[in-house]
Amino acid sequence: MDQYESKEQMNILSDVKKSVAIDG
After folding, report:
1. Which residue pairs, CB below 8 angstroms and at least 24 apart, start in 15-21?
2. pLDDT tens digits, one per residue of 8-18
3. pTM across the whole model
4. What is the pLDDT of residue 8?
5. DSSP line for 1-24
6. Which of 24, 1, 22 is nearest to 9 (CA)?
7. What's the rounded Cα separation, in Å, for the pair 24 and 19?
């Protein structure tokens, strides 16, 4: 469960980075 949660967080972080890259 821990691994899955951290994987989800990393996916969210990469999504945010992509959004920032598109905006900036």
Report:
1. none
2. 999 999 999 98
3. 0.48
4. 93
5. -HHHHHHHHHHHHHHHHHHHHHH-
6. 1
7. 8
